[in-house]
Every structure is written in C-alpha cells, then in structure tokens.
Amino acid sequence: MPATIALVDDDRNILTSVSMTLEQEGFQVRTYTDGESALQGLLARPADLAVLDIKMPRMDGMELLQRLRQRSAMPVVFLTSKDEEVDELMGLRLGADDYITKPFSQRLLLERIRALLRRNEASRAEGSGTPAGGVIVRGDLVLDETKHTCVWKGHDIQLTVTEFLLVKALALRPGMVKNRDQLIDAAYGENIYVDDRTIDSHVKRVRKKFRQADPDFAHIETLYGIGYRYKES
C-alpha cells in the first residue's frame, strides 16, 4: 500500500503543486486548507505522515500539532518561513520531527518525507545490533521496536519516531557519549543536514516526557560541548 501524506496549508498553489509531485512519486495525498479541518480529518482517518504550515486560519500549525500529539505519534514536518526561527524551535519542542523553510525545493521535501517514512518503518522493525525480539531493556527503561513503545517504570512514554530513535541510540550504549552528529545520523539518517539545535530541542522534549512520568528522571545526561549519554539505573 502506498503511504498516505496529509498536506495542510492555506496556500492552494502549494497544495496543488506539492500534491502533484507526491502523487507522481506514488504517494496517496490528502489536502487541508486550515488546521481545524485537518484535525478532524486526521483523527478520523490517520495518515502516515503530515506536512503542516505554521500560519493558517481557524487553527495554526502549532495548535494543530499539539492536538495531534495528544492522540498520535505520526511523523510531522513543519513548513516555516526563513524569519520564523522561534517557530521552528517551538515546533520541535512540541513534537515535530523535522522542518523545512519556505521557499523550499519540492525535491528536498520529498527526500525528507521518504527519510522520515523509512525511519518510522525501521523503528518498528528489528535493527542491527538490537537484542533478539526487538526489545531493549536498560534498567527501568523498556523499548520495543516492533511495537514502537517506550516504557519507563511501568509508565507508557509516547514518543515520536525521531524521539524514539534518539532514545534508542543512547540506550543501546549506556555510559557512552554520543555527539550531536552521531545522534543526527541515528535519528535522521546519513546525508541529511540538521542543525545541532534540532537535536537539543528533541532531547529537551524527551526529558520533559519522562519527567512527567517520573519527576526524578535524570538518565539522559548532557556533556556540554560534547553531546549526550544514557546513564543506566
């Protein structure tokens, strides 16, 4: 079955041109011109991935992402303008997996979509170096790749695909430091450029999610100027 992509943007020219490109590449596409109709549509019929504009009528992309994240870990790519750096960071902190600035190359967007879909699929399958059964256990942490689930001290932690891959990369080698380039490769794949601040934003959000379940959570350590490591219980 071809993957279904949801495009949410109030610019009908973007919706038309991007839809044509994606359909030519074999994707199924659903389009929405505002956040409110997109929320209703995506809750009724989830897509495999969503591309969201930030500034839209009736419900902007930020609120739409927040509402979606209450129900779904579906991969999300934000479209932002070049002068919306704060929005980019806020989007990542709210749970976006990636962002692209306007004006953008449709080939770049297509590349990012394919990379995210591959990562989402890979995170649900057994990877090289993963214990048998696709389950990683590190003290109170249990990651199940086949089910894409994360459990900390019996609490379900809802992670996006990017967040899941970051936690997995750190948990596979507890005590070992992963620099930001290594985490970018683990979460985004090689040959994908992502700013260092993107990783920092994802890590902050991951910590926040764990601390909502356990206020004393302190197992993802920052080594300033170097990177991050997972400290096993």
From TrEMBL:
Keywords: DNA-binding, Phosphoprotein, Transcription, Transcription regulation, Two-component regulatory system. GO terms for biological process: regulation of DNA-templated transcription. GO terms for cellular component: cytosol; protein-DNA complex. InterPro entries: CheY-like_superfamily (IPR011006), OmpR/PhoB-type_DNA-bd (IPR001867), Sig_transdc_resp-reg_C-effctor (IPR016032), Sig_transdc_resp-reg_receiver (IPR001789), WalR-like (IPR039420), WH-like_DNA-bd_sf (IPR036388). Gene3D superfamilies: 3.40.50.2300, 6.10.250.690, Winged helix-like DNA-binding domain superfamily/Winged helix DNA-binding domain (1.10.10.10). Residues 133-232 form the OmpR/PhoB-type domain. GO terms for molecular function: phosphorelay response regulator activity; transcription cis-regulatory region binding. It comes from the Bacteria. Residues 4-117 form the Response regulatory domain. Residues 133-232 bind DNA. The modification 4-aspartylphosphate is found at residue 53. This is Response regulator transcription factor. It comes from Roseicella aerolata.
